[in-house]
Every structure is written in C-alpha cells, then in structure tokens.
Amino acid sequence: MNIMMKTITRFVPRRAAQVLGAIATVTLLNACSGGAETQVNPVTSLPPSTGYNGPAPATADVQSFKLNVWDNIQAEAGCGDCHGTDGQAPTFARADDINLAYEAANTVVDLTSPEDSRLTTKVGGGHNCWSASDSVCADLMTTWITGWAGDLVAGGGRTINLEAPVIKDPGASKNFPADATLFSQTVHPVLTQYCSECHTSSAAVAQGPYFAEADLETAYDAAKPKIKLDDPATSRLVVRLREEFHNCWDDCLANANEMQSAIEAMANSISPTEVDPTLTISKALTILDGVAASGGSRYEANAIATYEFKTGEGNIAYDTSGVSPSLDLTLSGDVSWVGGYGITIANGKAQGRTADSKKLHDMIKSTGEYSVEAWVVPANVSQEESRIVSYSAGQDARNFTLGQTLYDYTFANRSDVTDGNGMPAINTPSNDEILQATLQHVVANYDPVNGRSIYVNGELINIVDEQGGGSIADWDDTFAFVLGNEVSSDGLFAGTFRFVAIHNRILTPEQIFQNFDAGVGEKFYLLFSVSHLVDVPEAYILLEVSQFDNFGYLFNAPHFISLDDTATFSGIPIQGIRVGINGSEAPVGQAYRTVDTMLDSALFEELGQPLSSLGTVFAQEQGPEGDEFFLTFDVLGDNVNVRTDAVPLAPPPPADLDPVADIGIRTFEEIAATMAQVTTVPRTNPDVQATYELVRQQMPSEATFGGFLASHQVGIAQLSVEYCNALVTDTTRRAAFFPGLDFNASPSVALGNAAGRSLMIDPLVDSIVGVNLTSQPDRAIIETELNNLIDRLSTCGNSCSADRTQTIGIAVCSATLGSAAMLVQ
Amino acid sequence: MKRQIKSVISQLALASTLFVLAVSTATAGPREQAKRMHDRLAGVPPTEAVLSAMANEIANGDAVAAANIAMENSAFYNVTLKNFVTPWTNRDGDVFAPLNDYTATVIGMVRDDVPFNEVLSGDILYVGDASLGLPAYSSANNNHYEELEQRDIDLKEDLVRTTQSSLTPLPPNATAGVMTTRAAAEAFFVAGTNRAMLRFTLMNHLCRDLEQLKDITRPPDRIRQDVSRSPGGDSRLFLNNCIGCHSGMDPLAQAFAYYTFNEDTGSIEYTDGQVQPKYFNNESTFPFGFATPNDEWNNYWRNGRQALVGWDESRPGTGNGAKTMGAELANSAGFAQCQVQKVFRNVCLRDPVDAADRSQVTTMVNSLTTGGYRLKQTFAEAATYCMGE
Question: What is the reported pTM?
C-alpha cells in the first residue's frame, strides 16, 4: 500500500486570520486568509455536579479541560469508573488532582482535530459508550474536546490528511449491448404497447424521450438511460410506475412488476462486461475510500441542542450538543433516515420529552435571546401552517415555532408583546418566494432588542418585526420540543432535516454565513489515481464527494494534485473528464466533460490545481457502499480518446392522420374586414368600431369548424347588423350600393314586386356571396330565403312605420352578411 | 331602430344554416380556386375584377401569380399577417393583443421580402410613416402601434423600415430582430430569469417547446445556481427531468445576460458587459452551479439527439450576445421547417396529414431556404397547394 500522505490545514472558520503552527506531520499548506473573528467558547452547559475537591487547576488550560471535558466525562460518560484515581492508565478521569488528569488526557487527545482524538475514536468504536449509539458518544466527546481546545480549533486550522488510497482497477458491470435485438424481445414490446400514446415522436402531444417509438433503434437509445441492468427494480421505467403512479395502464404495482420482469429478462441475458478498454480511465474508488472532509467549520459556541442525524437507524435522533440534559428526539410515524445524515418526515414527527425540553426554557430564558438554525428540504411549496421546528404545546400555545406556509418561512415567538401563541408571527415576503423545495439553511433569531429576524442561505430576509423585542419571562417550561409537526400532530411539515441546532445566543450575520458556508452532511475527498496516465508522481484527480440525498451523489470542484511535494510539471493537457459508476460512464450529469485545460504545478492551490469550480449530481445506483467510481478522460497527457457524438437516427415518418376538412371559417378580424369590404362601410365607422370591440372576442379565433359555437354566431350577427345598419342608414352609401331602391317608400311600394326586391337582394348576393361560384351556396335558394324574410317583415298592413323598408333592408342585409356564405372560407 | 334589428336576429341564424346546407359540392374550377386562395391569403373575398384576374392566372397554370395578386390586398397585411404574428408576441399566445413593434416588424419583413432568417438577428424595425401624424415610436410605450391599429391604417402602404439602433437605446450589435423589440422585451424579458425569451422564441420560431428539445445526456455545466438539483429532496427529478431542458437552455439563454425589461420605465434595458442581477436569482439554491460571467452562449443541442434540428454546420455554435444566438436559431433547418408549418396551417387551415402534405412541406422548406427566405413566397405556395381541386 502506498502510504504517501499530504496534510492540508483548512482554516476554520475558512477565512480565519490566525495561522496554526506547524502541527502537520508531513506537509503543511497554507492557503486562506482573513475572515471571522474567533473567541473563547463560553461555557453553556449546566454545570454537572462532580464533587471535585483536589488542587486548583494550575493554568487556564487546565481549567478549560476541567470545565469542558473532565466534568462531563465524570458526570455523563462515567469514565472515572475505570480511568479514575488509581484506575487503568491513562487516568485522565482521576479525581484526586485535576492537573494530573490533564497530563494524562493530553496523551489521548488531538486538540487540533478533536474528532481524531484517541478518546473520541475509542468511544466511537464502542468502548464503554454510555449512549445507545456509538456515534453519539463520539460526537459528544468531540464536542467536549472541541470546547477545551477553544481558540485552537475555533480560530486555528483543521488538518486534512490526504492519504493515498489503495490502487484498484474499475470492476465489471452490466452494459447495454450495441445491438437492440435483446431490447426488442423484452422491454420494447411493453413500451410500445403501453407508452406509445405519449412517448413517440408521432404522438398527438409528443413527450420525450421517445422510448416507445416503433423504430427500434430510436426507442433503444431513448430507453437506455431509463433502465438499470444491475438493479432492474430501480430502473426509472419501473419506479415511475411503482412509486410515482405515472400513467399506469391498470394496476400500478402489477404494471411495475411487468415492466421489471421485462427488464430482468433483458438483464439476465447480459453478462457483466469490463470497462470499455478504449477509454482512458483512472483507478477506481468507492465513496468509503475517501478522506472525510466534513465538519469543524461551524460556529457552535452557544449551541444548547444539536441534531446531526448521523445515526442512520433506530427511532431516536440524538442531541449531540454536549449540553446536559440531552434533548433526544423520538421519531414517530412515517419518518425515515436519509443517507449522508438526515431524516425525512413524510407523516410523523420527532419530539423530545417535556422534561428534557425544559433545557431550552431554562437556558434561553437565562439569556433572553436565541437562535433556531436548520438545514431543511421542504417537500413541497404547497403545505401551510406547517411546523418545522417548534417548542410548543399544540395549536394554541407555544414558546417559539419556525414554520412553513407555502413559499414563506414563518416565525412565532412568545413574549410580552405577543399573545401566548407567539402571534402575530412574522413571514418572509410571499412575493419573493423565499422558501423553495430544495436544501436551504434557515436561521430564526430572536433577541429582546430587535425582536425576530429570519436568515435564509446566509442572507437576512427583509422583514420588519412590528412587535419588536420583548420579555420571554412568560415562557412555559411544560412545552415539548418537536421537529416536523405540532406536538398535537396537526401541523405536519413534510420534508427532510439535515441538521438542526438551537443556540441560546443569537447568531451574528457573520456566524450565520459561516455556518451556511460550512455546508451540511458527510463529505469525502476522493483521490482518483492517474499516475499511470501522466508522468507525474503520485498524481490524482481530487473530487469532493457527498451523498446529496437518498438518490444521488454530489461531485464537486475537481482538482489535480500530486502528493509528492517535489513534483513539478507543466503543459500536460487534460480534456473531457467524465465520471464512471460501476463499470460505465454515467449517462447523465457529466458537467466536467467540457473541462479543457493544461496541468501546471505552478497553479496549485490548497487542494491542487482547480479543474472546475462546479458541482454536479450523479444518480446513486447500488448505494454508497456498493457504487464504485472512476474517471475517464478524452485527453490526459499523451492519452487521447477521440469520441464523436453518435449521429441520432431520424424518426420515421409519422403515421398519416385522419383526414380533416380543407375548408374552415373566417376568424374575428377576417369577419370584420370582410363585412367592411362587402358593405363598403369603413372599419373606422364609430358605431361599427364600438360593436366590433364589444364582440371581437365573442367571434371565432380559430379557423376550424370544431370550435364553432352558437355564441360565435350571435357575435357575428351583432356585427353584421351593425354594418348593415351603417350601410342602410347612410343615404349616400345605400344609394350607391342599392341603386334604384327607394328606402323611403313603404314595403308594398318599394318591395311589392320582383323587380323591387331584386334591387335589394341582388346587390347583397352579388357582393357577399359572389357570382358564378359553384363552391358558394345556390343563389336561387338564397333568394328564396331572403324573399321569405321580406314577406314576413312586410306584413304590417297599413300600420307600417315610415322606415319599415329601411328596417327590412337592414334585416335582409344582415341575414346575408351574417350567413355561412360570408363565414365559410 | 336597434330594438327592431335585434328582433330579427333569430331569423338570421336560420338563414345562415340553410346557406350551409346549400353549398355546392361541384369540383372547383379556376374561379372557385381563386376565391379560396383569396379568402385564405387576404381573409376577405375578392372583388369580381380581382377574382377574374386570379382565375385567369390559374387557368394559365400560374397559381403563384394568382396568389401574388391576392396578397396585393391590404388585408393580407392588416388582417392575415397581423393575426398570424400577434400570438407570438405574448406569453399567453393571445391573438387579441394590440398591434406592436414585433408584429409590425414581421409584417414589414414579409412585405419587403426581407430574408426571414434575419428575424432573430437583424437591426430592423418597422414603424408607421411619419406623415400619418402618429405618436412617435417610443421605447417606453406602445402608443405608436396602437394608434396605427385603431385608425386601421394600411400597413401595406404605410409601414416604413428603420433600425432599432436608431430609435431605441440598443447599440447595433445588441439588436436581435424581433427578440429585442419592445413588445418581446415586455413579454419575455420582464422579471424572471430571461429563460422565457428563449423558450418562447423556440416555441414560435422552431415550433418546439422545451419538452421536445430536452436531452438529459447534455453536459450540465452551464446550469445556473437557481436550479435545484434535488427538488423536494429527490435528485432523481433533476436527473430525469430538469437537467434535460436546463442543460441546453441555460447556455443558450446566457446570450440574454445583458438584457432586461424595466417595468418602471416600460423600456428594454441593455447593460453591455454587465450581467443582469436576475441571472443570480436564488444563487444559494445550488451554490455549486454555474455563475454567469458574461453573455457567451453555447448550443449544446448541436450534439446528441437534438442534432436532428438541423443546425447550420457553417456556424460555430457559440458566440456572444443575442444577435449571434438568434442567427444560430434562425439558420437551422428547424427554423425554416417551422415557418413553413405555420404558414401551411394558416393557409390550409390544418396541419399536414399525409405523405403528400409532408412532401409539399419539404418542397416549401427547400424553396424558402434556397429562395432567399421570402415568406410571402411560402404563403403563395401554400395557397396554391390548398386552393382545391
């Protein structure tokens, strides 16, 4: 095994001003500068009763050891039972002389890296752990030692030991055969039978990808990313049916099983294949081969309850603040653990005991201020009155609650300027849609001077707390602390918690940004060996990798690094980096395939030469323990792998559609323009224009017959009446249009015979219907209808009004103008 | 009088129905073909003189000449083209929206046979003739065009070609055809992240929404920080859906990095060299994502299955700003095909349904691309194809 190692000091906080002395054992790289101030951690825990009666601590550091570590390992961890006075060496828990205990403790702690202390690793390994979870013991011990280290850790550096991983080649995995025959015999028939109404290019509403295309090759290409040969049940084609109920054709479970069976039939016929030998590949790693990169850079000096959700199993979320009593939370209902630290509450809650919750009451009342900090992923932006973090007794009584309503975070605090339910609450501005269904860092601060404020992802949200600050003397110590719901289980917050902390001081904006910047969850540095590809000793591509959620990994910020500090080089080309998983390149998420740069040792920074500042997400396949990663390169040094994107196959011609009418109707403005043209009335006529504006949207907007409605015809009739009214009531215009027709005569005179009626009917039909057009309605039938209309309207005997002929003219004109003879085109 | 008129409306509907029943089914001759052609192109029936002239051309075997006669009618511009284009100019596809500079510019380009593949890149604008006494063109409002429409001014006669750079704050290299008109800016650059301008341009000029363009295999390195990689805590949603559109869309929409629409002034704004703050909206959603440094665009859809769009191989597929990106889109085969499909539907009142229709579309696409991108010619060819037999 190669034991090359590089130790890198990362500054915590990242921009810390102080530079830690040369603690690293091999190499120390200094990189960052500037940043937040550091300060001595105040003692926040309730002092345990230790009954120490020995000599006084000789130095301040001994006193710090006593307060932060010794008191806790006596009171809570019970280390004194074995490692006490005259007990087993090292006697770091001896009670006779704190200075001697301090000397012993110094042999089993690493104050620059508390999590790597012997004390921590022993209890974390199960050595007399006093909690049900070894990781909780380790976290508590880390917290205590960190408290002792104080400035040293908070303002100094944390070392990252980049240790050369075991060299191994990528393993074999099942890959898709180039030929689609197997696909055609197994999965394709299922797809074409059930998915072709949407997932084909010829579908009425085509939905990509076209994996149900009748053309086999096209369908095969499209289906590959949706099929997992190594684990058919997790194929997207199956999950969509089984878990997301996506257009099942009858019973979703049965449909999913049918799809899975088809994929299994395909997978079972494929032998695992080696990694494509034409690829230029790095050596392989699993995520567990990485170097832990998480933790250490948060500001937690005043944390009185902390939840990191590291346990990953069981029904208790442990409080790892190290502040007694531990306010552990019991998970109830539909609550599941999230890989990479976290819990997801689908329909349940995580609630602490009232007696333990009293810690919050006591310690926050003593300062009068507090801060609620959480990394959360709201499941949606549609839930309302949802309790994210709450210290309350039900819907009507609370000390504080951080909640969600749609796109808003809400924050209620009980004080003497609010009611007993903490109302009125403050909300983030709804229009800004601050809350999103994605991982967010949210901090709710309360202090008696400024009242409430909310920070999201490190930024203060502009909210005015009109109530302002007040006294929290009336807080009730009988309430319970709960995540994801109201204690009465009627305020569900569906979502994921990655981290929660309660501080009994407000976090300053700098501290909030520091904690946001530190991120959340478990991270690793993966060192992909490429020494066999370039002439650089101990050469690696370093990637920060974390489990992003239950379904994916986050790969971030690739660097090129050599663990050999003496290595110098330049001018080595590197292009097209892709991540491989389980023997093949991941089909989706390859953000680094556009990398194109030259390697140069002069460009080294803290973690080597940056190749990209981006992060990208890859799908999880077999879980963190099973997924094996490697990198491929288009160009690395002298290794060149020329690739060309496959030319996509053109989809086959779509099937013929049913014949449709090759005629249609005029639309609204065509109707108006037509009426204007045939009547000679301009569209700008005020009456016409007013009516047009009135009925414009009532007339057809589509030229097809399918959407034609009775209301359309009413609108057309109204407009035709208006045009005809404008035509017939304008003596000049009507004289030109109806030459020889006397509109002032009575109907019996003007329209009493065929000749008179022709003077009215013929100009209209000639103009509107046209002449000698076999595609238009039969002229004789039209004239008969119009004559019948004149007959009916002329039946007024001797009581006809003076303008009756004019009225008949408008009616006959309108009947013709508003008819299908005008409308159909 | 009005009351009397209303009393006869019920009788009109009956008459209308009877007229439909009486339509002849006889085979169309040149007069019938000319009538339909005129109806479809101008939206209004022809006069007897025009009908006769068109019928003569058809009888002589030159239907395109007949179509050109029909397009001499001002209604082709004032009605047909206006309603053809108006839905492209707003997010709702509203055909009732007022006339605006986007619509007028397209109408003018068609009238003057300006190569239509300049519609997304040209420094071009059409305004009403100065002699009309209209309110002057303004970057701050649409009054100029609304009065043009309200007065029913003949767009065939009174639209005048000019440049955006002479009438707006945009420098010539920041103009990008209709994308940088005031109407487009008001609709698609307003608020948001400027992705809307790309999406609606793709919908209106490539006849493809993002659903048809998505390809999850494209590199996601240009997806901005505001896109959650784990919506609701489930990265599968991102890897199977979001990434498909954003991986191609975001590097193209970067071309609009210096544009926005100022709702206070009512004007388009262009900040040369300065990326608009909207490109950093919600940047903490995924801080490891792409932070836009400039207006360099890349067309990742040139490779992968969207190569089928038919991108112009003589172009580099990358550039800076909306002008070159617009040219990238408008010189694709998909653009030409889209224009033809839209015209076909507008004139024939239906989509292509069979092999003959598809063949005609192909012929028209070839005619458009090899004939100087004259969209009026495409209208004429579609009218000829659908004039009836």
Answer: 0.79
**How many angstroms separate the CA of residue A578 from the nearest CA in chain B?**
10
Chain B residues 267-286 with CB within 8 Å of chain A: 282, 284-286
Return the pLDDT at B11: 46
List B residues 158-187 in contact with A (Cβ-Cβ < 8 A): none
Work out the minimum CA distance from A295 to partner chain B, whole angstroms: 18
Q: How far apart are CA A478 and CA A325, in angstroms?
A: 16
Q: In angstroms, rounded to a whole number, what is the distance separating the alpha carbons of residues B263 and A664?
A: 41
Check if A271 contacts B (Cβ < 8 Å).
no
Cβ atoms of residues A8 and A606 within 8 Å: yes
Q: If pLDDT is split at 50, 70 and 90, which confidence band does A339 have?
A: confident
A204 touches B at CB < 8 Å:
no
Question: A 239-258 residues with CB below 8 A of B?
Answer: 239
Q: Which residues of B touch A612 (CB under 8 A)?
A: 221
- How many Cβ contacts (< 8 angstroms) between chains A and B? 299
**Residue A505, C-beta contacts closer than 8 angstroms, at least 6 positions apart:** A301, A302, A367, A369, A370, A371
Q: Which of B44, B290, B350 sits opposite A614 (nearest CB)?
A: B290
For residue A325, cis peptide bond before it (omega within 30 degrees of 0) = yes
The candidate with the shortest Cα–Cα distance to B177, out of B108, B128, B74, B254, is B108
Which residue of B lies nearest to A203 if distances are taken between CA atoms? B212
> pLDDT digits over A79-130, tens only?
888 888 888 888 888 888 888 888 888 888 887 778 888 898 888 877 888 8
Secondary structure letter of residue B176 according to DSSP: B
Reference A280, options A588, A643, A618; nearest CA is: A643
**pLDDT > 90: percent of chain B:** 91
A 10 A CB-CB count for A51 gives 8
Mutate to test the interface with A, among B1, B2, B5 (most CBs of A within 10 A): B5
Is the previous residue joined to A686 through a cis bond, with omega within 30 degrees of 0?
no
- Looking at beta carbons, which residues of chain A come within 8 Å of B45? 674, 677-678, 768, 770, 822
Percent with pLDDT over 70 in chain B? 93
Q: Pairing relation of β-strands A303-307 and A615-619?
A: unpaired
pLDDT tens, residue by residue, A465-514? 999 999 999 999 999 999 999 999 999 999 999 999 999 999 999 999 98
In this complex, which of B27, B233, B307 lies closest to A496 when CB atoms are compared?
B233
3-state secondary structure (DSSP) of residue A263: helix
Q: Name the residue among A208, A648, A793 with its Cβ closest to that of B211.
A: A208
DSSP letter string, A296-334: S----TTEEEEE-----SSSEE-B-S-PSSP--EEEEEE
Q: Hey, is the C-beta of A775 within 8 angstroms of any chain B C-beta?
A: yes
Q: B318-358, pLDDT tens digit by residue? A: 999 999 999 999 999 999 999 999 999 999 999 999 999 99
Chain B nearest C-alpha distance from A212 (Å): 15
Query: Chain A within 8 Å of B93 (Cβ-Cβ)?
Result: no
* Helices (H), ranges, B81-158: 82-85, 101-111, 143-150, 155-158
Lowest mean pLDDT among A293-307, A465-479, A552-566, A667-681: A293-307
CA–CA distances in Å: residue A83 to residues A73, A91, A645: 10, 5, 66
Q: What is the pLDDT of residue A49?
A: 47
Q: What is the ipTM of this complex?
A: 0.93
What is the maximal distance between C-alpha atoms in chain B? 73
A629 in Cβ contact with A286 (< 8 Å):
yes
Give the amino acid at A665. I
Identify all chain A residues contacting B22, using CB atoms and an 8 Å cutoff.
Answer: 777-778, 781-782
